[in-house]
Specification:
Elements lengths: L1 H18 L10 E11 L2 E11 L1 H20 L3 E9 L3 H6 L1
Antiparallel strand pairs: 1-2, 1-3
């Protein structure tokens, strides 16, 4: 029983941590890939945007993307925005 409770707590913690975006207090700059996926009636598509910056910069970019997709959510699309930290340099990030 204890193992089941521990596993349940662990999975909940992992799910919550995966849903959170970048740390807005992180002053270090990284290249981030922000994937936006949309699906509607079985048809789906994905687009990627690359941002080089601090956690706050990436959080601001995510907010902007969410604002742009708000219309589609209201129309019934399912939208998922996922930030992924990459190991690309600033130059390689800006070429994407």
């Amino acid at each position: 029983m204890k193992k089941l409770i521990f596993l349940s707590s662990f999975l909940t913690m992992v799910m919550v941590s995966c849903q959170q975006g970048p740390d807005v207090n992180d002053p270090n700059e990284y290249c981030w890939e922000i994937k936006a996926s949309a699906s509607y009636m079985g048809v789906s598509g994905t687009s990627s945007t690359y941002v080089y910056g601090t956690g706050k910069d990436v959080a601001d970019a995510i907010d902007l993307i969410e604002e742009q997709y708000k219309f589609y959510e209201q129309a019934g699309y399912k939208i998922n925005i996922t930030p992924l930290k990459t190991n690309k340099s600033e130059a390689a990030c800006s070429e994407m």
